[in-house]
Request: fold
Amino acid sequence: MAQAWKCSGLRWTADGPVLRWDGGRGSALTWGKRVAFGVTEGGVRTCVGARGNACPIRAGVSGRSTGARCEECARLDRAHSVAADTIADDPRPYHVYLAWFGPGMTKVGITALERGSARLLEQGAVVFSWLGVGPLMAARRTEELLRAALGVPDRIPYADKRAVRAALPGSAAERAAEVEDLHARAVALGGWPDSLERASCQVVDHVGAFGLTGLAPAVGAVSELVAGGVVGGELVAAAGPDLHLAVEDGRGNERGDGKGVVVLDTRLMTGWELVPVGSGGFSVPVREFKAAKESAGVQDGLF
Reply:
């Protein structure tokens, strides 16, 4: 019987995306690599716990949950979280940033200075620029200032990000335009906290890092993994937690090569016991993008 593995999520490194496994091993992902795994027959998805601690009751969780936590562990995980606004005394400096995911989709956010641009890669930001750096509460006040004065949201749904990745403007200048405009409008506002040091606009473009150049439109996204299900495809791009896989779809796409691109949110992999597969099809539920149509030995990991 094949050794089962548990995925602990996708991490972005200087060399690209890496799937991490419980126990600390990692599988580096490169374009053209085959990503293939199965969910154990009769398997049940269990809660991943909170803040490095296992769920005490190994509660079952929904296959559609991207958090893979039971209600109690989810509460504990957010009980000491910058994202949930439950920390006010973190002494670390924080960056305020503008992140662009596609036309009309720019958000403002904050991330600890020590994390560098990791947070932007994790969110799938196609373009970003720093706005400033300062204490946590000053960064939070600046974030709220931009939301109120410029109508810039602090969240963009992942479904919206996925829908536009294959139809982004072709030039870096076009992709940078909205961030540059919002940056200029932001720094012109009054009311910035005195303790936040403003940063000049220096746009970073992740199209190359994500492999988005020439990306074919996705036909759908995996809605959940299921016991006994199989995922198999060629990695053509990755952004945030998402893998874009070219899979045999039985219909072909606009190139007539018999393949379509399906998006796999790797957060759906956590909590399951996964096993390697040598070959096979694609037998997990996929939600189609209808709107898009209209417009041996010890293994280091599963693959």
Q: What stands out?
A: The first helix runs from residue 71 to 77.
